[in-house]
Design a protein that fits this description.
Helix content is 43%, strand content 5%. It is mainly α.
């Protein structure tokens, strides 16, 4: 656009050496944050640390379920069904987000720990109070990441789940059903239906 304006003398000679303020060389959402999935080594470190600090287990629960941090913090115990190995996500950003999330066998002990806490919500503060995103981030997430010298945002856990499922060879349509992504076409969003046991089998592969 700049070159066109110069050639056709829309930009006057005295303005042609000005800095080009708008950089459109990299199209996309300028507000989009880079996402960095946890590595296998980092996930192993989380498993080691959760034995001493239960808030490391929150990161693991998100990695093995693909839930957003807001979805997890607003998850009530009444929506968790440990015997059947699933929980219900209700308060979400999109209709595709309303879903039954399978509970991988690996995280059953972690879920049971939080279930045992005297709080209406699954994840709570040290004083068993409901957590907002900002309180969780500032009081728990940032300190535990700093403690193990990792630089991850809570949303990185969601990308970690997707990466692990993809690595395990899980069908992309099933991954979307688990994490609550909207389907890409009419066939997938309307006619394709995966029963819960298939999702549970998939999540247990990671």
């Amino acid at each position: 656009m700049w070159d066109y304006a110069v050639i056709h003398e829309i930009i006057t000679p005295d303005k042609r050496e000005l800095i080009r303020y708008l950089d459109i060389s990299k199209p996309g959402n300028p507000n989009k944050m880079d996402r960095k999935p946890f590595s296998h080594k980092e996930i192993s470190k989380l498993w080691d640390m959760q034995k001493a600090n239960p808030y490391f287990s929150v990161a693991l629960i998100m990695i093995y379920t693909g839930v957003r941090i807001g979805e997890l913090l607003n998850l009530k115990k009444e929506d968790v069904h440990m015997e059947e190995r699933w929980f219900q996500i209700r308060a979400v950003k999109t209709a595709a987000g309303i879903r039954e999330v399978p509970i991988a066998e690996k995280i059953v002990p972690l879920m049971e720990y939080w279930i045992s806490r005297p709080c209406e919500y699954l994840i709570c503060s040290q004083s068993d109070a409901h957590l907002s995103y900002y309180t969780f981030r500032d009081t728990y997430w940032t300190p535990i990441m700093n403690a193990i010298s990792m630089k991850h945002r809570p949303h990185d856990t969601r990308h970690s789940c997707i990466s692990l499922l993809t690595e395990a060879g899980v069908d992309e349509r099933i991954i979307r059903k688990i994490v609550g992504h909207k389907g890409q076409g009419v066939t997938e969003t309307v006619y394709t239906h995966f029963e819960f046991p298939i999702k549970l089998e998939a999540i247990n592969k990671i």
